[in-house]
Amino acid sequence: MSLEDDIKYWKLDSIWGDAENMPLHRGMEWLLSKWLLGKGIETLSDKKMLSGGCASGRIEFHMESMGAKHIQAFDFVPEFVEIAKRNGSARNSNVKFFVGDMRELSCLENVYFDYVVYLNRMLCFVDNAGFDKSLREIHRILKPGGLFLFDALDYKGRKWNELLSLFLKIAWTLQGAKIKPRFLPRVRNKNQKVNSKFWKTDQNLLYWFTKGELEYKLRQNGFEILDFAKEADIFPDPEDSIIFYVVCKKC
Ligand SMILES: C[S@@+](CC[C@H](N)C(=O)[O-])C[C@H]1O[C@@H](n2cnc3c(N)ncnc32)[C@H](O)[C@@H]1O
């Protein structure tokens, strides 16, 4: 998919522009509380933070409510950034929203941020080259010792991913295309109905990681892993098995 198609997908087919009041997933709340508040609100208040894929701004407003005072946030859909700015004005927020693509953040200074936060599967939305570019940008803009908090999809966390991959391989071959391993389409659309076109080659795809691969890539790009958890490691009653919650430090 081209950048234009990607942006069109997020604008038209996703629910995120209107998600301002949707509660955060409890795993996200756990990650933010543990790693942003670990050293106390006073410490957080002077930290510089970048948040990616803001859409309505709900994650950024949540971080602000936790005591963060210097948050910049971006999304590559200009209409979402306008919505986030409007939502921010309505609640007297100080978050600075701007249009940006996580693969190319040259508008941001080197070695500037204490935290980069990419929640709600941001790193799963780009191809392999886009992932490498995004990680390099995060490493460039973080201060040494700065933290990168994110979540990502776990390929092995959903039992039927292998079956889906096999089905797609056949369907794509019949359409004259070759699948890219572990890039899977959404099987439900924004109304939670089955996406009847999921087998077509023009679908917006998500990348599903394996733990080993993610750990390897983070280390290769100069990060030390501090936390790598799934709901089963966090809560006594895990409801979700497909999300990794990860924190790493710029070495
Ligand atoms: C799953 S939504 C999450 C929105 C918001 N963080 C939330 O949880 O309500 C992902 C967001 O990331 C944005 N996005 C996807 N790829 C991006 C990229 N390469 N650069 C910047 N934003 C991107 C989309 O436009 C979308 O708003």
What does this structure look like?
- It is a single chain.
- This protein is an alpha/beta fold.
- The chain folds into 2 domains: 3-154 and 208-250, Vaccinia Virus protein VP39 (Rossmann fold, 3-Layer(aba) Sandwich), CATH 3.40.50; 159-207, no CATH class.
- The chain is 36% helix and 22% strand.
- The strands form 2 sheets. The protein has a 7-stranded mixed β-sheet, sandwiched between helices.
- Helix 5 (78-90) links the parallel strand 2 and strand 3 (96-99).
- The longest helix is centred in the middle third of the chain and has 14 residues, at 128-141.
- It starts with a helix and ends with a strand.
- The relative contact order is 0.14.
- The structure holds S-adenosylmethionine.
- CATH architecture annotation name of the largest domain: 3-Layer(aba) Sandwich
**Helical residue percent?**
25-40%
Gap from first CA to last CA = 34 Å
- Topology pattern, helix = H, strand = E: HHHEHEHEEHEHEEHEHE
CATH C-level of the largest domain: Alpha Beta
What is the β-strand count? 9
Per the CATH scheme, the topology name of the largest domain is Rossmann fold
Mean pLDDT: 96
Instruction: Specify the overall morphology.
Output: globular
Could you state the CATH homologous superfamily of the largest domain?
Vaccinia Virus protein VP39
Arrangement of strands in the largest sheet: 3-2-1-4-5-9-8
**Helix- and strand-based class?**
alpha/beta
Bound molecules: S-adenosylmethionine
Approximate strand percentage: 15-25%
Count up the helices: 9
